[in-house]
């Protein structure tokens, strides 16, 4: 049985329109959530809806309002909100197509799966999906979710589509200030060869099952041990050395992927003969180097 759809409506491209369903692509059902309780009696703390003037109020007495000045609000009635509902409330209209690889990940927000809404929609659904795949494009449109109109991008994924809501341009910070202090300079070709060999030695297929929320895993184990009345086992990660030799670290990393570091580096022009006579450098663990400095 198919899961319950988060949103049901139509996908529209020019004069073509057919029914589609959206499903949440990401679930937080397994995330451990902690509650606030009263220390000592362990009664859960409740958050009643309270007015600072009249005390606790019923939910039926709560309305929406916008604060246009400090402590000054204009009330917006639900009937007024209903009047300004947008067409994209029930329609995703694709108005533009862009190269699929032109999207910057920083603009991607919530992810959804899109499937056809019944057998009648399957044929146009498959045609549009394959057309996007063959042209290497993604559709740009708008969708209203929870009363807010959001830009979206639609891309082929598996047998259906993946839809992402997009951050608006004014929501994404300009990267320039964060990278201003990075200097331009020549890349050391010897280090480059080492880094490329290291990357190639660790290449593999993308497998999302390898990714775990280690904090959540540790939190689950902590909760289990507390329930069982056992002393919790806290695993501390190994600290990285404060200083290290970049070239030496690259060479040691290559040893770890099964290829000697010396084989990965071609001797620079003009120094080949001299380099050939030199014995290979010995790898010195960062901890050992740190101990030597302390003894000195």
Task: Please describe the biggest sheet, giving its number of strands, its sense, and whether it closes into a barrel.
Answer: 7 strands, mixed, barrel
Mean pLDDT: 78
CATH level 1 name of the domain at 7-25 and 84-171: Mainly Beta
The N- to C-terminal Cα distance equals 70 Å
Radius of gyration: 29 Å
Helix content: 25-40%
Assign the CATH topology of the domain at 7-25 and 84-171: Ku70, Chain: A, Domain 2
Number of strands: 11
Shape: extended
**SS field, number of helical segments:** 9
Topology order in helix (H) and strand (E) letters = EEEEEEHEEHEEEHHHHHHH
Structural class: alpha+beta
Classify the beta-strand content into a percent band. Answer: 25-35%
Strand order of the largest sheet: 1-2-8-11-10-9-7
Poorly predicted runs are: 266-296
The CATH architecture of the domain at 7-25 and 84-171 is: Beta Barrel
Structure explained in plain terms:
By secondary structure, this protein is of the alpha+beta class. Among the domains are: 7-25 and 84-171, Ku70, Chain: A, Domain 2 (Beta Barrel), CATH 2.40.290.10; 187-202 and 247-265, no CATH class. The chain has nine helices and eleven strands. It has helices spanning 78-83, 122-135, 176-179, 189-201, 214-227, 246-256, 261-264, 272-277, 286-295; strands at residues 7-13, 16-24, 50-51, 55-56, 64-69, 72-76, 91-99, 108-116, 137-145, 148-157, 160-166. The strands form three sheets. Strands 1-2-8-11-10-9-7 form a seven-stranded mixed β-barrel. A two-stranded antiparallel ribbon has the order 3-4. The protein has a two-stranded antiparallel sheet with strand order 5-6. Strand 10 and strand 11 form a beta hairpin. Helix 4 (189-201) runs parallel beside helix 6 (246-256). The longest helix is centred in the middle third of the chain and has 14 residues, at 122-135. The termini are far apart. 10% of the residues are buried. The model is unreliable at 266-296 (pLDDT under 50).
């Amino acid at each position: 049985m198919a899961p319950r759809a988060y949103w049901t409506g139509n996908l529209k491209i020019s004069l073509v329109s057919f029914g589609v369903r959206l499903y949440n692509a990401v679930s937080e059902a397994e995330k451990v959530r902690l509650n606030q309780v009263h220390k000592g009696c362990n009664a859960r703390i409740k958050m009643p809806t309270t007015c600072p003037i009249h005390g606790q109020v019923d939910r039926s007495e709560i309305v929406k309002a916008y604060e246009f000045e400090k402590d000054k609000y204009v009330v917006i009635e639900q009937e007024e909100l209903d009047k300004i509902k947008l067409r994209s409330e029930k329609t995703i209209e694709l108005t533009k197509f862009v190269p699929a690889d032109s999207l910057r990940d920083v603009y991607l927000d919530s992810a959804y799966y899109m499937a056809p809404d019944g057998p009648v929609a399957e044929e146009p659904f498959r045609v549009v999906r394959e057309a996007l795949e063959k042209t290497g494009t993604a559709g740009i449109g708008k969708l209203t979710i929870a009363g807010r109109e959001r830009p979206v991008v639609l891309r082929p994924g598996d047998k259906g589509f993946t839809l992402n809501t997009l951050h608006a341009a004014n929501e994404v910070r300009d990267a320039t200030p964060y990278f201003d202090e990075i200097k331009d300079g020549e890349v050391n070709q010897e280090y480059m060869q080492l880094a490329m060999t290291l990357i190639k030695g660790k290449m593999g297929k993308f497998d999302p099952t390898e990714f775990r929320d280690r904090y959540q895993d540790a939190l689950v184990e902590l909760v289990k041990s507390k329930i069982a009345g056992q002393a919790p086992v806290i695993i501390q990660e190994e600290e990285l050395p404060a200083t290290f030799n970049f070239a030496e670290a690259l060479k040691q990393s290559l040893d770890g992927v099964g290829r000697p570091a010396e084989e990965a580096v071609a001797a620079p022009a003009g120094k080949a003969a001299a380099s050939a006579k030199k014995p290979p450098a010995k790898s010195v663990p960062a901890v050992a180097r740190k101990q030597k400095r302390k003894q000195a």
